[in-house]
Design brief:
Layout: H1 14-23, H2 29-42, H3 46-51, H4 54-61, H5 67-85, H6 93-96, H7 104-114, H8 124-132, H9 141-151, H10 157-170
C-alpha cells in the first residue's frame, strides 16, 4: 500500500475534478485523463458545459463510455451549479448528491479530494478489496461504506480510500491479482484459493 496515495485524475479546479469523476464511472482514470486533456482546453467551466451542444459534448467524451447519459448529466449538473450554487461546486455531501450524475461515491471523492474532508468513497476496487480482506461481505457499495466507516477512524477514511483504490488497481486486481507479492495474502480469502 502506498503511504501517500494521490488521485490519478488530472484537473485544475473543483469543477474539472467533478467532471472527471463523473466521466470515470465504468471507465479508467487513464482514459478519462486522455479525454479531459483535450476537453478542458475548451470546456472547463459550468457555463462552457451549459453552452456546448449535447451532440458535440457526446463526441468529446465518447471514449469514456456511456457518453449519452454522461453528457446529459454534465449539462444538467453544470446548469444546477450555476443556477442553484452561484457557479461554485457545492461543498457538502447533501448538496453534491442533488446534482445529476453525482451519487455517494462521487460526492465522497469530492469531499475528500476537493474539500479535504473525511469521506470513504467506495468504488469497484474498494468494494473488491473490502470483501477479499473480510472488512465487508456485500456487493452493495453503500453497505460496504457503512462497514468501513465503523471499522476505521474518520481521519483515515480519505487516505484509506485512495490506498485501496491504488492497491486494487495495481496489485489486488479483479483478474489475475498479484497474490504472490501481496502484503495481505495471509488474510485474504482469494489468496487462499
Amino acid at each position: 500500500m502506498q503511504p501517500n496515495p494521490v488521485c490519478e485524475l488530472n484537473y485544475n479546479s473543483n469543477f474539472e475534478l467533478l467532471v472527471a469523476v463523473i466521466l470515470s464511472a465504468q471507465c479508467t482514470d487513464k482514459r478519462v485523463n486522455q479525454v479531459t486533456s483535450e476537453l478542458f482546453k475548451t470546456h472547463n467551466t459550468p457555463e462552457d458545459f451549459i453552452n456546448i451542444p449535447l451532440e458535440e459534448l457526446e463526441q468529446k467524451i465518447h471514449a469514456c463510455g456511456f457518453y449519452h447519459n454522461k453528457a446529459l448529466s454534465l449539462k444538467s449538473m453544470s446548469y444546477d451549479i450555476v443556477e442553484k450554487f452561484g457557479g461554485e461546486v457545492p461543498h457538502t455531501f447533501d448538496e453534491l448528491v442533488t446534482l445529476r450524475g453525482v451519487g455517494r461515491k462521487t460526492a465522497n471523492v469530492m469531499i475528500s479530494q476537493a474539500f479535504a474532508g473525511d469521506a470513504f468513497a467506495v468504488d469497484t476496487h474498494v468494494l473488491r478489496i473490502s470483501n477479499r480482506l473480510g472488512f465487508a461481505n456485500t456487493q452493495n457499495p453503500d453497505l460496504c461504506e457503512e462497514k468501513l466507516k465503523k471499522i476505521f477512524p474518520k481521519d483515515k477514511w480519505s487516505k484509506l480510500h485512495y490506498q485501496m483504490v491504488l492497491f486494487g488497481r495495481y496489485t489486488c486486481k479483479a483478474i489475475n491479482p498479484d497474490c504472490k507479492n501481496c502484503l495481505f495474502k495471509d488474510k485474504c480469502k482469494s489468496a487462499k484459493k
